[in-house]
Amino acid sequence: MPDVDGFDEFYRGSRQRLLGFVYVLTGNLAEAQDAVQEAYIRAWQRWSTVSRYDDPEAWLRVVASRIAVSRWRSLRSRARAYLRHGAEESIPAPSTDTVEVVAALRRLPEEQRVAIALYYLLGMPVAEVARETDAPVGTVKARLSRGRAALAGLLAVSDLEEA
């Protein structure tokens, strides 16, 4: 019998962080929600094992990221179908600020984007980001520094273009 209460507590405590993380990686809220939902389903199916991991949330982030990447691969065919048949917009549009930040994040290298998402969005210390990304602490600090500098430049350029 799975530990229902333990899983429910884990879900409530991690769902927003995981959704935010995957959203930053994908730039698409609907895709992020789908990937996160699938990751939680897989976690539930293996909860007796996953719950004993040192960091079950890290396992879930890896699974959700892999699901999102897999979905990216089929994006082209879905985009073609949407062009042929149209897509109904059922999600309210994000704010202008959110769109600008997500667009800027998409232009960063993946390593910088992941480091920024883990550090700023999830609030993980640099040492944990290093452990999760399997990179030295110094490398993570450099990725964060370069990512911040690149974002500042990208966001400043868009501010100047509007003026």
TrEMBL record:
Residues 11-76 form the RNA polymerase sigma-70 region domain. Keywords: DNA-binding, Sigma factor, Transcription, Transcription regulation. One of its GO terms (biological process) is DNA-templated transcription initiation. Residues 100-151 form the RNA polymerase sigma factor 70 region 4 type domain. Transmembrane segments: none annotated. InterPro entries: RNA_pol_sigma-70-like (IPR039425), RNA_pol_sigma-70_dom (IPR014284), RNA_pol_sigma70_r2 (IPR007627), RNA_pol_sigma70_r4_t2 (IPR013249), RNA_pol_sigma_r2 (IPR013325), RNA_pol_sigma_r3/r4-like (IPR013324), WH-like_DNA-bd_sf (IPR036388). Belongs to the sigma-70 factor family. ECF subfamily. This is SigE family RNA polymerase sigma factor.
